[in-house]
Write a structure and sequence with these properties.
It is built from 24 helices and 17 strands. By secondary structure, the chain is of the alpha/beta class. The protein starts with a helix and ends in an 8-residue tail after the last helix. The structure holds adenosine-5'-diphosphate and magnesium ion. The site of magnesium ion (MG) has 3 residues, from loops. This is DNA helicase RecQ.
């Protein structure tokens, strides 16, 4: 293991930094101790140094698996400019070039070798001839079908640890919930990897959710004091991006549309103009933003509900990289939910997609601090409410929900954490449906102890318990509800629980509904019900179960 001094000298000499960012030093040391490591750190957090620095001090080559062939050249050129011996191998190179790299490798002239997972088989022979000291797997979420950017070639990477079983592995990603992390480690054969979880808290971003009616008017209103500021409006469809850009232009804003259907040169131009502040607003699909390094984006609006929290977090994360206060605004509409549910049911892995969408919806519907929910999604608990989201700024009133929580949690205990929310509520309310009877749940001690609370209210309470970290949803096990460290405090240590007053929630919903003209609301509601029933029929699952909505019980 190198001396601390040597590590700091290397940091300064090759990267120009005097100090490490949070976790970097611990990660570097863990590599030198020979551990396998799983690093989850937000974009821009400084993941690269975690393997680049050890690469300079370890005797052999560090193999870096990276999916972004397009960025590989830039990365390697950047390293070389700092005097680091780096190279990459990919399918675009000719044989001479590849031969040159092979020779350099054999002569131990290369410290970092970047390679795409698809190209690994080309250098299979070579790998047995060189000394490998570290294997880094960047964008490691690509290995998991539960992550949000699955790449089939990544699933073969598990063999690396089998073949080089005493070489430490470091897997790095900016986006992975708990289950995805576990999946990554299992697939890479590093079950004992040390987990490094950096904070995802971006305190400078304010969070706000509004009902999605009259969005355009709301946007003009929002932009009133932001005419010269850079911002992004994310939309679900290409058509919406164009419609919005045009409306904004008509109002005198410097706005452009950006989506995969825009010609290549035009897209590059929009991007360039945005970066140098000629274009202030980009109305874009999620295609926009990857790899764009602009620090002074002051606001991000989601015109439509994103399909999961990972995507939402990444997109709002493009605001305020300079650390200055920046605003984010999310519009929440029924129509979007329906649309997204449709996408989710037709995608592979639809149960997971659906569960993730549910979490997104719960975030948007939340009556408790939104940042807590966002961070708890990534496995991070914050003690205090954030004070910088709309719920914190305008909080609902609370009731003592300790007894309600105890009832719910002890039902989860008695049911051995084997059921999803719907069944837990059925047991609490003493329902007599097939699941309850088949499994003998009517004999549980908590059966029917809380039928004074309606099904919908129970649903709201349980969502609040989840959002406050008292329960967890196991997405990958049919959405079963699981206990947490915190639930034990309520059950055994007398911890008090506050729950938002649902009467208040009704009031919020009413105001939102009033804002939509009654007639539109009625037709919309009927249409919604029809669509839900139809979708459920196609899926062969009772509608009230898919949508967690008892009013759909026929
Ligand atoms: P990630 O891969 O996590 O998105 P990078 O490794 O690309 O992040 O680093 C993001 C930026 O932070 C880079 O410009 C990098 O030079 C800078 N950076 C990384 N570590 C440090 C540090 N210890 N001190 C100052 N800047 C750092
Ligand atoms: Mg990176």
């Amino acid at each position: 293991m190198p001396e601390k001094e040597q590590i700091y000298t290397t940091l300064k000499e090759y990267f120009g930094y005097d100090s490490f960012r949070p976790l970097q030093e611990d990660i570097v040391n863990s590599i030198f101790s020979g551990n396998d490591n799983m690093v989850v750190m937000p974009t821009g957090g400084g993941k690269s140094i975690c393997y680049q620095l050890p690469a300079l001090l370890l005797p052999g080559v560090t193999l870096v698996i990276s999916p972004l062939i397009a960025l590989m050249k830039d990365q390697v050129d950047g390293l070389k400019a700092n005097g680091i011996q780096a190279a990459y191998v990919n399918s675009s190179q000719n044989e001479d070039k590849q031969q040159e790299i092979y020779t350099q490798l054999q002569e131990k002239q290369i410290q970092l070798l970047y390679i795409a997972p698809e190209s690994l088989s080309f250098i299979d022979n070579l790998l047995s001839q060189i000394e490998i000291s570290l294997i880094a797997i960047d964008e490691a979420h690509c290995i998991s079908a539960w992550g949000h950017d699955f790449r089939p070639a990544y699933t073969q990477l598990g063999y690396l640890k089998k073949r080089f079983n005493d070489v430490p592995v470091i897997a790095l990603t900016a986006t992975a919930d708990k289950a995805t992390r576990k999946d990554i480690c299992e697939q890479l054969n590093i079950p004992n990897a040390k987990l490094f979880l950096a904070s995802f808290d971006r305190k400078n971003l304010s969070l706000e959710v509004r009902p999605g009616n009259k969005r355009i008017e709301q946007i003009f209103d929002f932009l009133e004091d932001k005419t010269e500021e850079a911002g992004i409006i994310y939309c679900l469809s290409r058509k919406t991006t164009e419609m919005l850009a045009e409306k904004l232009q008509n109002q005198g804003f410097n706005a452009e549309a950006y989506h995969a259907g825009v010609a290549h040169e035009k897209r590059a131009l929009v991007q360039e103009n945005f970066i140098n502040d000629t274009t202030h607003i980009v109305c874009a699909t999620i295609a926009f933003g990857m790899g764009i390094d602009k620090s002074n984006v002051r606001w991000v609006i989601h015109y439509n509900l994103p399909k999961n929290i990972e995507g939402y977090y990444q997109e709002i994360g493009r605001a305020g990289r300079d650390g200055l206060p920046s605003s984010t605004l999310l519009f929440h509409s029924f129509a979007d939910v329906i649309q997204l549910q449709k996408f989710a049911t037709t995608s592979g892995n639809h149960e997971v997609q659906m569960a993730k969408l549910d979490r997104m919806k719960q975030y948007a519907d939340s009556l408790s601090c939104r940042r807590k929910i966002l961070l708890s999604y990534f496995g991070e608990l914050i003690e205090k409410d954030c004070g910088n989201c709309d719920v914190c700024k305008n909080p609902p009133s609370f009731i003592d929900g300790t007894i309600i929580a105890q009832k719910a949690l002890s039902t989860v205990v008695r049911i051995k954490e084997e059921e999803p929310m719907g069944t837990i509520i059925d047991v609490l309310r003493g329902a007599q449906n097939a699941v309850v009877i088949d499994k003998g749940y009517q004999n549980l001690k908590t059966y029917g102890i809380a039928n004074d609370i309606s099904w919908q209210d129970w649903q709201q309470y349980i969502i609040q318990l989840i959002n406050q970290g008292y329960l967890e949803i196991a997405f990958h096990q049919n959405n079963k509800l699981k206990l947490t460290q915190r639930s034990k405090k309520v059950l055994f240590e007398g911890e008090k629980v506050s729950l938002a007053n649902l009467a208040e929630f009704e009031k919020i919903k009413e105001t939102a509904a009033q804002q939509i003209k009654q007639r539109t609301a009625n037709t919309l509601f009927d249409k919604l019900r029809e669509l839900r029933l139809q979708l459920a029929k196609e899926a062969g699952i009772p509608a009230y179960q898919i949508f967690n909505d008892a009013s759909l019980k026929e």
